[in-house]
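Let's practice the habit of predicting before peeking. Look at the sequence and jot down your guess about where helices and strands might fall. Then scroll down.
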Amino acid sequence: MNSLFIHSRRLIYTWLRPFLLLLLLVIFNACRKTKVDNTYPLTGVQVGGSAGSSVRLFNFYNAQLDVKANNIPLTAFSGSGSVQGNQIGLSLFPSGVWNSGDNGSPVTMPVSLFDKNGQLHIIIKSRGTRGYPGLGMLPLLSIDTVLSNDPLHPKDYYVMGGGYLKVIDRNIVAPSQSDHFKLRIMNFGELKDTLGLVGPVVLTYADGTRVKEMDTIGVGKTSPYIELPYGSYQFKLYVANASGEPDYTKQLAELPVYPDFSNAGNTPQQHLVTRVRGFKPGGTYTMLVNANILGYNTDPNGGENPNFYLINSYRVLTEQSAPQNISWARMQAVNAWQDQAVSFRVDGGALVNGLGFGQSGGYNTVVQGTHHVEAVDASGKTIASADIVLYPYDNITAWVFAGSGKAAIVFTNTDLTTTLYESINSNVVDDGTDGSKNTWHFNYALQTRFLNLSDVPYVTFTNNGALLQPRVSGNSQQQWQNDTLAYPQAYINLQPGVPVLYNPFVVYPSDADGNWTITLNGQTYVEGGGSNKMGLALSNPLPIRVFQSSPATGIYEGQVPGSLLGNVAPLKEKDFASGTLIYPDGNLRAENGFYTVALVGNVLSGSGPSGKLIVVKHNK
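Done guessing? Here is the structure:
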């Protein structure tokens, strides 16, 4: 029986052997084919739609970079336009290369690229060799490392201009007060640069007053976080002098604005333009100082042949995006009523105390909803009151003025984004559902609202007696006129106490996006003999003079601008300067920002305070 079983097993094995070999061959080939056709199991859709990891990359190398993840190219690794990136890489780097933008061009690596242990093998290389006339070659960059996804300890990886990777811990703790934001400064500046902008740095507001919560930050140091009330700030950064206070002749430039290189860089670095930025409640931000390669075109013939220099400058980074604001608005107050102290209360609590005639207070944070606002004289008597409904991100100014013989309160809301809606493009359908293609936005501009709070029935504001000449105005485009962007209702025939509600702003834009820049090696540089033009208004809006005007009624034609109000002094450039500290040469200049110009007081009658123009700057 045993011999029969053995014999039978041999026959079965002999008969099945060819089929078993064939089956194994098929299985082997199938596996091998699967491996070839699916070198990487993820698609671009899966990577692009994946949740972000705790790892972010920033390019501060001053040139373009190529990136591999797990040996899969995420960029094209070629400057040829015929080389196409793969689907995965293009989902992260749509242009096929990692550029070095003003914000470091941050990239959050998707969780889907990490293995089950939370590891990611990454290679970062410079795209070829980059040489800069006057400076030489950039250090070659070749980084080969493994990144870890640790959600409890998120990290930012800075690719620095020196050809190395700097690892920075990223804070994920929200501000202790929900209406505040967090801010820190990292001073990674070089100890030598072309303009001598080296050493500890100190932070100020737009007018040069120091941010007291922030200490002086030495080279190679990172400050602790400070918390400030949310809002629109125009921060400035200076090299500190020996006492630790700002040296107002050594201001650092906030990219993309360039330092002043006139007179071969031998001029003081002062009153450089900085951007007004919205720091949102619950957000976390960093100001990073590092050496950047900046190019200046000094070719007297106007050719694009810049020389390059290594100069310490800074940029503002968002470490942690703010949550949606569903609670907070801001409110300030102005006394445009009488030449005596006036205080303001909101729901019985103090908003600001003791404002003199023409004076304004700072913003306070107020919760959204309905509020009762009162203006109170020195004796504590309520002279005017009004109710208002606040919505998140409102920037409300409460004005008390003499309306119809008695005190009244009027509110204005200031848009701090420098945007203007203009439906002028005949190729764009304006159906009221999407205005993005008709919205003009400027990062650097002087924007003002004009307001009549006087006893003059109608007033018109002018540029030195001539009507403003907007390049874009009232749904029409006039290429030969270019001093402003505005609608006529923003400055013509303004009535007392009646703010313009729709397109109320006059914008004096800069040319930060075009004519004064060049691009070389993937970087954008300022052109123009080394002078700092970026961020400056294209036109001089001053002096501002105000006229008594009248609209057309019945058979009578309107008179615009009308009759000059000669007893009202015009506004000059110094009236739009941020204090005096930032102008050590004493030459005060108009600065970008958000303003209201108001005619207040009694212009036509002899009683009460005399009429005058006042300027309120709404950003700090």
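How did you do? The two ends are 103 Å apart (CA to CA).
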